[in-house]
Amino acid sequence: MAKHWSEKIAGKIIEEFPDREEYTVAAGISPSGRIHIGNFRDVITSEVVCRALINQGKNARLLFSWDDFDRFRKVPIGIPESYSQYLGMPLTEIPDPTGEYKSYAEKNEKEFEKSLGQLGISPVFRYQSHEYRSGRYADLIIKALTKRKEIAQILAGFKTQGMTEGEIEKYYPMNIYSRFTGKDNTEVISFDGERKVEYVCKDTGKTDVIDIKTDHVSKLPWRVDWPMRWLIEGVNFEPGGSDHASPGGSYDMGKIISEKIFSNKPPYFQGYGFIGIRGLKGKMSSSSGELVTPGQLLDIYEPQLIRWLFLRTEPEAQFDFSFDSEVFRLYSEFDNYLKESLDAGDMDALKMVDPSSKGIFPERPMPFRQISGYGQATSFNQGKLEELLSQTGETFDGETISSRLPRARSWLEAYNPENMRSLRDSVNSEYLCSLKGIELEQLVMLRRELERNPDRSMQEWETLLYDIPKQPGMSEEEKRKKQKLFFTSVYRAIFGTGTGPRLPTYIWAEDKRRLKQLLPSE
Description:
Helix content: 40-55%
Oligomer: single chain
Largest sheet: 5 strands, parallel
Strand content: 5-15%
């Protein structure tokens, strides 16, 4: 069998870094806003490669860095405009708008960490605000400052216009958070060659001197910070998006800084493609605030399915998550994959899809398309759904019903409300007043039957509903037409639309008291 892409990458890492006691694969994200699924590809690519290294008999750890010592760059959509007062401060210093967490950064971090747990991902977390403030990086910051002109010359080589001698002379690879304002609107004036830096706070005009060893208010800029962390954490592999992977991008620059400034071999790098979205009414973008988070995906997609979609796709390739009816196909393909893997006894592949499964997978998962239809027909009542299945003689794995039924409901309510049928909150008086004669009588008859015997079986409701519109001497074609008209009348009365889920099943499962209130009494 062909090797999985993660195994190929693991093999290249071992070849690049032979005889390591432990391999470190890394990922990192800035909690500057809600973490969307495009960001998520960073961590799952590393996590899968980490598992591949372990499968090849190596000790490996997954390291995940939160870049929460980054500056607050802009006020995201949905955050009060008053938060512009915090621009330029570290993300960990920005208050949480909800007041639930210690900071704005922590709110975004904890939401994402919860999703990682649901997806079977358990990394070693690094919070860069803590790492910088602990003084862990002090010696390497000093090293970067002593080689500041060399760094400037490397950066200049990646700029179209290069850098002038004056710009190189004034360059300092350091961002300082002012001790007067807490913001990074500062400029380094001088470095004493050992540990002290003088800077000016542009907001106040005041100058100050910090000791890098004791005053932990500075950080390296991203393009220097990244290779610095490769060294201190011993990183052997880290992926990056197409912007980092492109020729002349962040990784190309970082590996030169890693080798020439920090005398460290850079990690093996893998670029990855974008994640697309199908079926949303708006376009996913950071500027508009229309982002899809892993948590939102988990409302619709099972964790194993999400992992499988990433696993089956080469990192460089783009693929889509669907929020329209295409979701039926994705679930169906996943169910077929599980069956094929079970038949082949491919436990290694299955454990990559579901690390917590211990090789236990359902042999008869309930199709998502079917559970969506039956769910509506039974008002998403799991007990009623299971009773319906027992009456029809169909058998499916109970855990998949528990897992998929609420996801089918979320899919309909949040993303396909036009296909969702819910009981009206009030009587459709306008429609009922337009009825007369036999059409009105049939609805009155249905209400009386709901009052007389609400506990009929599904089969009894089916017989009753098809019998109500029948009249003596009707042909089969006339019966079908009258039955269709009657069902349409019921749908309009209880939903306000002319269509709906299978009516006998729905009435059997629904609250009879609520149904009765929407039908005419006379």
